[in-house]
Prior knowledge:
mainly beta; five-stranded antiparallel β-sheet
Amino acid sequence: KRRISTAGDFLFQIHDRNSGQIPCFGQNDGALILPLNNCEAQNYKPIIQAIRYLTERVCEFPSGPWNEDLAWLFGSEALVAPVKQRALHDFSAPVGGYWTLRSSAGFAFVRCPSYRDRPSQADSLHADVWWNGINIALDPGTFSYNAPAPWNNPFSQSRFHNTVTVDGEDQMERVGKFLWLPWLRGEAALSDPALFNNSAITGYWQGEHNGYNVSRGVMHTRAILRCADHLWVVIDRLDGAQAHDFRLHWLLLNTTHTWNGSSHVLLKFAQRDYHVNFGSSSSGKATLVIADPASPRGWRAPQYFHREPAISVDLTVHDRATWFWTIFSPESSTVKCTSETLSIASQKLSFALQLQARSSTGSTLLVAPGNTSI
């Protein structure tokens, strides 16, 4: 019962309260073993509700279509159980490598595993961004294990995830249909935002993995900053002994949008527009693709053997070391990046971050504590 409760807590802390969905990660086979309700398959509220009642005899959510499971499994008395809602907060499950940063309008979700079991996908440092129930930056899913190429499990590859790839290679080598070697190791932690002496920074996560250090002599470190309660900053640092092709990729929800051809995607939603800005300290080339007819780029598979268009945007630079930055916000932003400073200005915020590279002796914070300004 304790293990079931812990599993339910995990699903609760990574779910989106508006839609009931959780980020897609790893292999998504589309299995729904016990369909006892009329909710969409991606809505996890029924299982979260059932586990909460099973382990504590209370409900997580007020009455709704997710209560059908309660009636089938526990009887009518479960339908009148008291509702005791818990708070969603910044969450870490370091053994499996799952992390979230929460705001009132959404959350960021990031993968940073050190594997104890066989990896299913090469997705280290993949990040999701959710806003008001909308999965802005998303995982591509799985689609199929057995379809004709190029659709035979392509989304397990690093280049289709929201991360940085080096020289077009995966983070690990694929040596079998479901086997990656050698297993990479990741390190990650949530840091106290008070370290930064900047009231704009309300949450900070940082992680890195050694996958490209093994194959290419390159370390990839990523930081995610929650700024105020509406703006997300993603900073990537790549360090190598020689020049490489570094490619930052984001897969965005397909919606009406505008693209300036280099650094800004404006996503249009009924409630309001949403901005995705990105760039690098090195010069590079950006591209945007939707539903490429010749490859899996610009597609997502929300369910097994079902695919739909998505917005794939990338930026590739050639350098020995570089900074990438990405800003997610419902407000437009102006960003300037050098090898030492990242300055961000929007309607409600204006601040600068002092950047510092990974030290030769190991990982360090990418944003210098106490050296930011607002």
